[in-house]
Amino acid sequence: MSTSFYHALSTARKPTKIHLFANHILTKKYHHDNDENVNHLRQVIGILQHHDAVIGTAKQHVTNDYAWHLYNATKSC
């Protein structure tokens, strides 16, 4: 296989900054009254695991939408 394929594969497997941030948020200790907010954050992170968000092939307005949803979900926690 070509070198560019292996490079693309290794790049796709690296965690992005947004996923590292999301993981940091989810591993914090939460109070029980935040369960609904944490579940909302988990749903948003599920959306962020779409292949366009993971490897960065989404158009800019889609990336902005991902960031907006993540911001709103994290500020409620």
Total number of strands? 0
The tally of helices reads 5
Structural class: mainly alpha
- Please, what is the average pLDDT? 74
Say what the CATH topology is.
Substrate Binding Domain Of Dnak, Chain:A, Domain 2
**What pattern of helices and strands is seen along the backbone?**
HHHHH
The portion of residues assigned to helices is over 70%
Organism: Schistosoma margrebowiei
InterPro entries: Glyco_hydro_38_cen (IPR015341), Glyco_hydro_38_cen_sf (IPR037094), Glyco_hydro_57/38_cen_sf (IPR028995)
Keywords: Hydrolase
Pfam families: Alpha-mann_mid (PF09261)
Describe this structure in words.
The protein is mainly α. It has one domain (15-75): Up-down Bundle (Substrate Binding Domain Of Dnak, Chain:A, Domain 2). Helices cover 74% and strands 0% of the residues. The protein has 5 helices and no strands. Helix 3 (35-48) runs antiparallel to helix 5 (60-75). The radius of gyration is 15 Å and the shape is globular.
Task: Summarize the topology.
Elements: H1 3-13, H2 17-27, H3 35-48, H4 51-55, H5 60-75
Helix pairs in contact: 3-5
Question: How would you briefly describe this protein structure?
Answer:
It comes from Schistosoma margrebowiei. The protein is 74% helix and 0% strand. With 77 residues, it is mostly helical.
List keywords for this structure.
single chain, Substrate Binding Domain Of Dnak, Chain:A, Domain 2, 0% strand, alpha-mannosidase activity, Glyco_hydro_57/38_cen_sf, hydrolase, Glycoside hydrolase family 38 central domain-containing protein
